[in-house]
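Can't paste images in this forum, so I'm doing it all in text. The chain is below; anyone willing to post the predicted structure tokens underneath?
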Amino acid sequence: MSALEPRTRAEYVADELRRQIVSGELPPGARLRQIEIADRFRVSTTPVREAFTSLAREGLVRQDAHRGVVVFRPSLSDVRENYEIRMALEPLATELAAKQLTSDQLAHLDALLDEMSKPLSDARLAALNRDFHRTIYEAAERPTLLQLIERLRDAFDAYIPMLATTPDPGYFDAVRREHAEIVDALRAPAPKRAHKAMTAHLRHNFEQISKLLDR
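Text version of the structure:
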């Protein structure tokens, strides 16, 4: 680590803490002590502070007046706001993508649908799902829109391990159908139908995550 530049050290610490938060190794409400983390990564406290700032911008940690920096614990209002914004942006990106999706991108989406139909670990399924959505949003060719969406999805990804509750029966089957409907609309191409299908998919996810939070 000593050969790395300070900014690179900060990014390294942020990447590792982000991975631990998303994986659940660092549970919601866990306190992140600056000196302990600096010792763990063998860096000074400066890159740790910078990493905390980066993670706070992503919504993964919060500053607590009494406990310092803590891993974010989402509330229903947090999830609602996240989805309200995403339901404005992601269907728009999907509609734009429908107008210019390439045959290679469609083939990739088909391959992802096929892979996601198989028995998979939660981690693998989450990675494929992220690839599925990013492939669509990248096809919109709106870099700023993609950046905004990715930031919101990064924040939401951290909610998943925090919600250690089994989803409703049939949830994943419904998600697979929704994904297929989105791809069908993209292939048509039917931009407005793609917009509508993505909106319905996101709304269903919000309803599911809301139920888990209520439990």
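Residues 76-214 form a domain with the Four Helix Bundle (Hemerythrin (Met), subunit A) fold (CATH 1.20.120.530). The chain has nine helices and three strands.
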